[in-house]
Amino acid sequence: MAANGKHSSDDNYLKEIRKDAKKRLYEYVAPKWAEDLRGKPKLKIDLFQKRTPILKWFLPQIPSDFEIYIKRDDLTGGAISGHKVRRLEFHLAEALATNCDTLIGYGCITSNNCRTLAVSGKELGFDVHLSLYKTLRLKKPSLSFIGNYYINMILGAHLYLSPESTESSSQKKQTELKQRLSVAGYSPYIVCSGQPGDVGLFGYIDCFEELITQGVTEKFSDLVLSCGSGLTAAGFIIGNYRNGGKLRLHAYSINRSEAELKKLISDLLKDVNFLPEDFSDERMSSLINIEEESSLSDYCVFTADHVEFVSETAKRTGILLDPNYTGKSAYHMVKKLQTAPETFQGKKILFYNTGSVISLMTETFCRAITGNGIMD
To answer: Which of these is catalytic: 8, 9, 64, 111?
Structure first.
């Protein structure tokens, strides 16, 4: 779209790309254990290589009687690195099938989700608009020194930076963008995130089916994941429960309280008719253990201990953790193993690495790793 809101000469070119992308759509068949869920999507499109590996992870300072393994969803692909692409396979299939030409997303300025949306959307011939809000805690953050933001710029996504540092302000801008683009003659599609009706939930239904084929439900006692919107946790709860409940699930909150996360997850599960409406948030503990001590005030806030842990893990194991997500949850998982090992059901634990290495390339973390700007 041109800067004046009118159609540009690129539109026909993008239309041809979308036309070709439609040939990649196929009918979605849910796992048998998820066939009865409400809101099941009709179509899907493949955007990454499936069956990311599961490897033994020699994390330092782990009690000798525990074994830790890691599911490498940081290997879903170069620029789309991370697990967010799993949900986009359903969103972008829906956008193509309904003849949309523009994608709208929102998130914080360092958002992995927005960057993955921009990469995948451009590949399929969509114009991409991103409503972003600033979360950096440094006095003079340089916008060009933020990995995900810079990649969005390279891709030519239209970026709108909210003057308010809140998620709600970015969501409001997203709605305004849809109205403006519709008036200009475009067909926009809003990619929601972790809200009731989000077809992206089935990305994590499929992920759990992938885990089953990799023997996870038989080989492991516990599964640990980072938790922001609750979408991944909801998908894994359904998969685990309907396949015998053999795993003990542990969700490490990134920026929400235990009560907030329980409510988010509960709403998602009720939306697909997995839980009855009278299922209380308090009963969520029977389905998943939520650890909120890993939660800080925002994604881009981490302590000196977090920075040291991410750095030491990289040096010792070659695994680069996302400092905003998996770096925090892995750090607190290790602390829990050291101080309260009884929290875990057994001794063989799988850590789901959802994050992207691109989040390491932000001014916040780079200053922290060099000893300038660490948040205590």
So the answer is: 111
Domain membership of residue 53 as a residue range = 48-82+198-369
- Give the per-residue pLDDT at 323: 85
Domain finish residue from 157, 190, 223: 190
Q: What is the pLDDT of residues 304-316, one digit of tens each?
A: 888 889 999 999 9
For 224-244, what is each residue's pLDDT tens digit? Answer: 999 988 999 999 999 999 999
**Catalytic residue status for 168:** no
The overall pTM is greater than 0.85 = yes
Q: Under a CB-based contact definition with an 8 Å cutoff, are residues 127 and 103 in contact?
A: yes
CA distance 187 to 109: 25
- Tally the domains of the chain: 2
In sequence order, what DSSP letters do the residues of 221-289 get, joined into one string? SEEEEEESSSHHHHHHHHHHHTTT--SEEEEEESSS-HHHHHHHHHHHHHHTTSS-TT--GGGGGGT-E
Residue 317 three-state SS = helix
Residue 110 covered by a domain: yes
